[in-house]
Specification:
The protein has 959 residues and is of the alpha+beta class. Among the domains are: 155 residues, 3-Layer(aba) Sandwich (Rossmann fold); 199 residues, Isoleucyl-tRNA Synthetase, domain 2, CATH 3.90.740.10; 90 residues, no CATH class; 121 residues, Orthogonal Bundle (Isoleucyl-tRNA Synthetase, Domain 1), CATH 1.10.730.10; 60 residues, Ubiquitin-like (UB roll), CATH 3.10.20.590. Strands 12, 13, 14, 15, 16, 17 and 18 form a seven-stranded mixed β-sheet that branches. Strands 27, 28, 29, 30, 31 and 32 form a six-stranded mixed β-sheet that branches. The longest helix is centred in the C-terminal third of the chain and has 19 residues. One of its GO terms (biological process) is leucyl-tRNA aminoacylation.
Length: 959
Amino acid sequence: MKYNPNEIDAKWQKYWAENQTFAAKNNSEKPKHYVLDMFPYPSGAGLHVGHPLGYIASDVYSRFKRHQGFNVLHPMGYDSFGLPAEQYAIQTGQRPEDTTRVNIDGGVDKEGKQIAGYRKQLDKIGFSFDWAREVRTSNPDYYKHTQWIFIQLFNSWYCKKQGKAFEISELVKVFEEEGNAAVEAVCDDNVAIFTAVEWNSYSENQKEKILLQYRLTYLAETEVNWCPGLGTVLANDEIVNGVSERGGFPVIRKKMTQWSMRISAYAERLLQGLNDIDWSESIKESQRNWIGKSVGAMVTFNVIPTTNNQQPETISVFTTRPDTIFGVTFMTLAPEHDLVAKITTPEQKAAVEAYIEKTSKRSERERMADVKTISGVFTGAYAEHPFTKEAIPVWIGDYVLAGYGTGAVMAVPCGDERDYAFANFFKGKNGMQEIKNIFANVDISEAAYGSKDNVEIANSDFLNGLNYKEATKKAIEKLEEIGQGTGKTNYRLRDAVFSRQRYWGEPFPVYYVNGLPKMIDAQHLPIILPEVEKYLPTEDGLPPLGNAVVWAWDSKNNKVVNTDLVDNVSIFPLELNTMPGWAGSSWYWMRYMDAHNENEFAGKEALAYWESVDLYIGGSEHATGHLLYSRFWNKFLKDKGLAPTEEPFKKLINQGMILGTSAFVYRIEGTNSFVSKNKIRDQKVQPIHADVSMVNSSDELDVVKFKSWREDYADAEFILDDNGKYIVGREVEKMSKSKYNVVTPDDICNEYGADTLRLYEMFLGPLEQAKPWNTAGISGVFGFLKKLWRLYFDDNGLFVNNDEPTKDNLKSLHKTIKKVADDIENFSFNTSVSQFMICVNELSSQNCHSRAILEPLAILVSPYAPHIAEELWSQLGHTTSISDVAFPIFEEKHLVETNKEYPVSFNGKMRFTIELPLDLTKEQIEEIVMKDERTQRQLDGRTPNKVIIVPGKIINLVG
């Protein structure tokens, strides 16, 4: 009976779907285990073999946990909002909703492109997903709940004293009774103090404006990365080298009124929570750096007026080194700082404005990363030192960021390398003072002294002779005495901009009355994305929703109506921005717990049962963005009594990347001639990617296919090797369509079956490491599966007997049970595959066909190669799926050696072997060996002079 993977795959995939084999229950007597993959964005390009790596690993683990008796939730869905679909809509005129659906379900789009469809591709690999719980973030029945969570954030504030979020109505009560002087809240800077009497006298509009300064999601003017080419704001991770990652358009810094999320309120909890989760140290460190906790002081410098009628201004600076305050020789503001325009003198205005214009074209990330370029401009203004009262020049420089700290730096060149380089670069220029040295017995002639260790402060008045800790404490005390500073803990983490000037995203449940935002009542959700004629911004620069004909809120009838009806009496304009891509992905794991609940994002019972994700697998590119936002939303929902746990993901594993092996042809510059790699001599050649499908395993290019690949290659000439072949160059790179090195899982499944693909991806190397794809190795894994099949079948059918297993059979099996169980728990999947190969080789050589061995072997293989395992289980006479059968129990006794095969030597030369129990004494061993007829033949009547016996090792007869 022949192994036919295509028939077996189709049979069991159909069985699993019809029987809902992997449907998880929301209550069970079994212990629960929740295994989650970071859900994909469904692009039209579909899956390549690199994408399923993490999914296969999570599937192996999920199947193993089912065998161990767990009720496993292993869901899948799609993060289906996003910029790529919108850009494709702009290019082709197709609705993002339509293209997204085709990308998921498969079919032909309006461009005539055949799309495989993510769902079909995933099904083909045989994943044990609970498809009944599938979610798509772009479906109204999903984003209805995203809108609801947004409303909860809007209606909440964060109490520093109690360290959690509360209803905004509770804050209003405090304002009504006490005012805000004693309120310890995370809020905007420079909130005005008011009494209860004043609050109660304010108009509703005034009250709303004040509350916006406290809400966890709020409107504010912020510096953003504006991409004119895409007509939208971009997050830092969507920008590469100053241009948009998608499309390569220039990005500038621009001030815009945006929705923001007050994630900074949760900075300390986000930091402390890292101690309670099982994540890699590298990911935790990335988050710690992003949160960026630092302890120091907030210092206020008064700006010296340049004219009699100039308004008094102050510069607030956060510093971790208040001990160095007497070393300040200049100040630097971020070019975008609000004060720059106010304090710049007329003489410096042109230079300052030119510098600001130049800086606006660089992203924050680019400015942070560029430590070599030194640039800046003197504003012409001076600030007063808090203690010495001397005038300190104020500069602007792009190494200071408006979004970090206060956007201002008190520069101490003797103690900071970047300040030192800046001071030396502008040395002798107007507005740059000499570097002061405030460290005793330290030479700063060549470099700054940035260490806090072994510091003795000098030239610093009341701080002289003190060390770092003593001087820091004393400096803060003195600053507080004169009212120009206070001790403070600061965080690098900034509030997250939550608006996007895009179409294809969640609509905000917001309308505007007198320019102030109002939330649509939750009972009227979802507010569904309207149809628009064009997906580009409007001619007057409004977001794409400005093109919508039906996009206004009728507050009397509680419905969306025609935009022309806006009267600002009962019908009001709706928000034109949409939510960012991370909105729907910041809570999706909870929706899987109760995916069909129409009234709540998830019911309390379901949330209480599943609690949190036990294992989360995904790419390390989400180390900060997605994981920070998800943890933030989870903590907020915990504060609201909705999420059952503080942290959403107990254990996190980042799978490595599967790299492609690209193929290169070499065109001689200025010609259409291509020279084989081995024939390149002194010619100047241009390497060009060739599609790997045109190259065989010997690196030989199919020249005919290449010439017909593109019109401009049709008349190409080829300089071949002496054997008449064109050999390409090879290079390991990221797998992508642009490099023509993509291998699709569909092709592998069609040729070798899904189990071969699954085993091979696990066999490539450790899960967390990057590894190159090499199609040549697949045949070996396919050969292993055929060899496994032959343990059960011969040409006439099933060949399994009820013979008692031998000791060697049991030893091979139990070695494998232990190894596979340990490997899966430790996520060492590649070594499990090696052990399967060893086991099958051993059982084949032992001619083992015993049911007592082959039944548990099928279970062991099942998590990795579920299709063949199901077929073997069925052929062995079982009528139910193998997926829930108990995992074989390891018995150590089968690995304990009770006998030893001794080599028996005569005068040092081994003549035969004898198997003896290991617990025999020397005397017993000698007696048995001397009586053995083979010994008698060797001695031929002689008596040995000496018998050397080392129990468990050797037997040697001498003389």
